[in-house]
Amino acid sequence: MYRRLLPYLRPHAWRMGATMLCNIGAAALDAFTLALLIPFLNILFDQPAISLKAGWVSDLLNATVGTLLDPADKMGSLRGVIFIVVLTMLLKNLLVWLSSSLGATLQEYVTRDLRNAVYRHLVKLPLGYFTRMKSGQILSRIINDTAETRVVLTHLMTHSLRSVALVISYLAFLIGISWKLTLISLFVVPVIVGAMQPMLRKLRKGARRRGAVHGEMTSVVQETVGGIRLVKSFGAEQYEERRFLEASGTYANSTVKLTRLAYLAPPLTEAIGTIMALFLLWIGAQEVLLHRTMSGADLIAFLMFVLRLLAPLKQLSQVPTLAQSSLASAERLFDVLDAPAETQLDKGRVATATFERSVAFERVSFAYDGEPVLQNVSFTAPKGSVVALVGPSGAGKTTLVDIIPRFYEPDRGRITLDGVDTREIRLDALRSLMGIVGQDTVLFNDTVRNNIAYGAAGKFALERIEEAARAANAHQFIAELPEGYETLLGERGTRLSGGQRQRIAIARALLHDPPILILDEATSALDTESERLVQEAIERLLAGRTVFVIAHRLSTIVHADIILVLDRGVVVERGTHTELMAKKGVYNRLYSLQFREPEVAGVGAGV
Q1: Which of 46, 54, 366, 448 is most buried by a 10 A CB count?
Q2: Can you give the pTM of this predicted structure?
Q3: pLDDT tens track for 239-248
Q4: How big is the CA angle at 150 (ends 120 and 12), to the nearest 5 degrees?
């Protein structure tokens, strides 16, 4: 997992390198400050300022402060040592500030890059991914998991580097003072690591489960906010409250369990470290009083190093604990990044697509999670024709039109465009030929202008956008908005009525001018006046295009060139309105249910 995360650090290698150098410098100066305790104590207790028993540490002290030490002027010598301590401390803290500043910048930029990479890949995933995943889970991964993952990438790495540098610096001085006591003190490290392993395994599993629970909690909030009108109309506030409280409680309980387990690490580390320090004190006292291999100042400095060593060791002992949550979040992020994008699955070689003759289905079958949705569907839609799809809910109408732009790939059979298998055409080229207007209009929290020119705002002049809006019967109400075409529509276009939203969507399709149109009939939930305006706009939209329309009101498709009646994924009837009415079959029955009398054939506007 660490190996997979490291590429996100490479673009910021200089920041990481500078942080490391600052941490190493600060650690070395911190250790040197402690070592200055030796000449200070020796002078204080009327001993030779620099003991030769401290190995290379004595040589370092001699080279740095030796010229400031005068046996005849003890107070002057102490002032010199104090001056060096202050100077070293100031320089050390400057390096600490630099490393912290660089580390914070590194942390934010790496988080940004990781978040961008996940989102960039997410929008390229096939439609099937989004039907399987809850939107709350997706949001949780982009927002929460990227924030969690940055802890192991940057925060822990920068702080841990500082602790590692301190540990190495302290150990170097400890070995210089007494290698024998240092070897004894090092025994504590494998003890701590061994004691922590079972805890770490539990933390990783628990953190991954907690991430999934967080996604469920986010889903509940999003569903409630998105469907608040329905919640209030059914008086379901308490029901939704119970759902959220249950999800929130589960998340809190999982967090408490993980936190309790994680908090075992610091006291465990401290207890083992303190016992080791007391043991070292006993052994060191023997070296000073019995064996005379150390001076009293050397022992005190050694113990000070050991005690200071406990803090970075404690921080390092927490790294595996804290990293488990980050690594679990990273695993969830790579679940997204490892999912193959449409561009990876796309085997198309034709980079430019045109449409001149027909779209044809040739024995197309499709199953979703093993359940057949379409079975052996075959028909041809000549250029300029209108193909209407009717049938009960779950008949496969939406899946059929979703296969045309290759939102899904057929399991068997093929769809051809002018005789070319659509799988041979690159996705971007194929979809450039198509426009989709759905019953549930999608608008974004952006200006009217950008919603109409969606995806290509810089491509179209305002005059072209206004022309498309006029053809969609939308220009008049747009002009009456506070900022006209620059008015922000709010999330999902909540500032507009249903009919206005539909006309914006139709203007969008008219502006992009696709030769093939997929229309999920847009008038079924509108009032009479809005329906009339939308229907007029639709008639302009359909002119000269090849249209696949999912019909909810059968009166709107009486003039369709081909009507396909689907039932459980099978085309059970096909023909014109007149032909299907004459058959007295499924279509006749559906039409009769809507209009009571099967002979009523000319009601409503045609498509």
Answers
A1: 448
A2: 0.69
A3: 777 878 888 8
A4: 75
